[in-house]
Amino acid sequence: MAGATRLRVQLDADGTRLSDLYQRAPCRLLFPQSEPGEPLHAVLLTTSGGLTGGDRIEVALEAGAGARLQLATQAAEKLYRAREHDEPTRVDIEVRAQPGAWVEWLAQETILFDGARLRRRFRADIAPGARLLALESSVFGRTAMGESFTQGLLHDARQVRRDGRLVWADALHLEGDIARARTRPWGIGTATACATLLYAAEDAGRLLEPVRNALSEVSGAGATAFDGLLVARLWSDNARALRAQVAALAALVRHEAAGLAPRLPRVWHC
Predict the structure, then answer these.
(1) DSSP helix, strand, coil percent of the chain (3-state; round to 5)
(2) Is the dihedral of CA 58, 235, 102, 17 positive or negative?
(3) Burial of 30 from C-beta contacts in 10 A (0-12 / 13-18 / 19+)
(4) Rounded to an integer, what distance in angstroms lies between the CA atom of residue 99 and that of residue 129?
(5) Is the pLDDT of residue 188 over 80?
């Protein structure tokens, strides 16, 4: 299965509008009515009900100069066990933001079933004056069912370029005995879920203090800012609690950064 979607928006006299849309099953984009003052809102869903070994998903987003776009996923994505000789599931997300654009990539959590194999790559190219808020989370097994992600592969890579120049590259690689790998010094110990929030903009540094204040009562979290980037990490042994913390943090950032409503789209609360 090889799904794909390509979405491009541009700013005209009436606001942000679609300029290009391509979809290939199982990827589908829906466009609920945007609330007043909010960016153009799109929702990504996969009609297959989950992904497994050998599946590929490609998502490409582009916001033209001054355009504002918010894309959220419809629900948590399920990654099922891959067969022994299957290729890993591959998910590629590419974001381009032209000068003055605002883009939000608000992915709900990816749930990794035991034996799942995932290679996920997120790449963003941000023009001067553009801003990006991106959020991704991983849950190690269906914890509500007493299951855990103990064997498999998770390779989670991110790159951010500013005007074509690489400014940040990051990757998490867990393979084989996942439980053992997570306990290494660079791991997340016994946490059953983790998340990364990225805000890329020229004013990213000024948000570090409010973000750290918001995380001060979170037991597993940290944040840093450098070179026009703000990066926050959260981890927890309670996936539901982590989801709430991540949603609250993203709502804070979008409000502090762009004066938008301090909440995530309704699809996050369905």
Answers:
(1) 15, 50, 35
(2) positive
(3) exposed
(4) 5
(5) no
DSSP-assigned letter for residue 220: S
Q: In the structure encoding, which two tokens stand for residue 160, read together?
A: 């951010």
104 contacts 133 by C-beta, under 8 angstroms: yes
Among 203, 195, 213, 176, residue whose Cα is nearest residue 110: 195
Under 8 Å between Cβ of 45 and 75: yes
**How far lies 69's CA from each of 17, 34, 88, 143, in Å?**
9, 10, 30, 33
Owning domain of residue 178:
2-269
pTM score > 0.85 for this model? yes
Count other C-beta atoms under 10 Å from residue 221's C-beta. 22
Indicate the number of domains in the chain.
Answer: 1
Tell me what pLDDT residue 22 has: 97
Residue that is written with structure tokens 């690489």 in the block: 166
Contact indicator for 22, 4 with CB cutoff of 8 Å = yes
Side-chain half-sphere CA neighbours of 58 within 13 A: 8
**Pairing state between β 117-126 and 229-236:** unpaired
Amino acid identity of residue 259, one-letter, is G
SS3 114: coil
CA distance 107 to 208: 22
Share of the chain above pLDDT 90, in %: 79
At 248 the three-state DSSP class reads helix
Write the CB contacts of 259 (distance below 8 Å, at least 6 apart in sequence).
Answer: none
